Amino acid sequence: MLLPILHYPDKRLRIKAAPIAKVDDSIRSLVKDMFETMYEAPGIGLAATQVNCHIRLIVIDTSDDKSQPLCLINPHIIEKDGELEWSEGCLSVPNYYECVTRANHIKVKALDQHGKAFELEAQELLGVCIQHEIDHLDGILFVDHLSKLKQRRLLEKTRKAQQ
Ligand code: NI
After folding, report:
1. Where are the domains of the chain?
2. Do 134 and 75 form a contact (C-beta atoms < 8 A)?
3. pLDDT tens across 34-78, in order?
4. Which strands form 105-111's sheet, in the order they lie side by side?
5. Partners of 102 in the beta sheet?
6. Are 70 and 84 contacting, i.e. CB atoms less than 8 angstroms apart?
7. pTM for this predicted structure
8. Structure confidence at residue 14 as a pLDDT band (50, 70, 90)
9. What residues pack around ion ligand 1 (CB closer than 5 A)?
C-alpha cells in the first residue's frame, strides 16, 4: 500500500520517533509499505517519520535496480569519522537539492525486520543516506544543516508554491 509522504514545513516532521519495543507483523507490514512508497516516489531512503509513523524505523536502497533493500530498526550510529560534502535531496522537500557536510564513514547498529541485531559499516552515498534518515527520526531535516539564509529562501519558496 502506498503511504502519503509528509512535506516540509509540516510540523509532524519535527516529532521525535520512539524506539520500537517489539518487531512484529505490524512492523513488517509497515516496512513493506514503506519500501513500496519509497520505490514508487522514487527515492533511496525513507524514514517512518515521513509517513507520519513516529517510531524508529528506516528503509534504504541505494542500488539502481532495487536489489539492495535495507531496513534498520532502532538504528544507532556507534562510530563516525571523516567528513564529506554531498548533494542531498529528500522526499519531504521535493525538487530541492543542497550540499550538506556529514561524517564520511559510519558504523551503525540496528535490528533487521526479523528483530535480529546487526552492525553495518557505510560510507559515501549509503553512509550519507543512513545519517540523513536517522536525522528524520529525531525530527531533523537536511535543510536544518544549511545556512539561515538558505532556509529562509526555501521557506518562502515553499509557502509561495503552496498558496
Ligand atoms: Ni529525507
Report:
1. 11-162
2. yes
3. 999 999 999 999 999 999 999 999 999 999 999 999 999 999 999
4. 45-47, 57-60, 70-81, 105-111, 117-123
5. 84
6. no
7. 0.97
8. very high
9. 90
| CA gap 5, 10 in Å, rounded | 10
How many angstroms separate the CA atoms of 68 and 61, rounded? 5
Residue 162: the pLDDT is 79
3-state secondary structure the chain: CCCCCCCCCCHHHHCCCECCCCCCHHHHHHHHHHHHHHHHCCCCEEEHHHHCCCECEEEECCCCCCCCCEEEEEEEEEEEECCEEEEEEECCEEEEEEEEEECCEEEEEEECCCCCEEEEEEEHHHHHHHHHHHHHHCCCCHHHHCCHHHHHHHHHHHHHHHC
Mean pLDDT of the chain: 97
CATH number for the 11-162 domain, one of 3.40.50.2300, 3.90.45.10, 3.40.50.10140, 3.40.50.300?
3.90.45.10
Cell of 20: 520500537
Give the model's pLDDT for residue 88. Answer: 98
In contact, 125 and 86? CB cutoff 8 Å: yes
Positions annotated as catalytic residues are 133
Question: How many angstroms separate the alpha carbon of residue 150 from the centre of ligand 1?
Answer: 17
| CA 124 – ligand 1 centroid, Å | 16
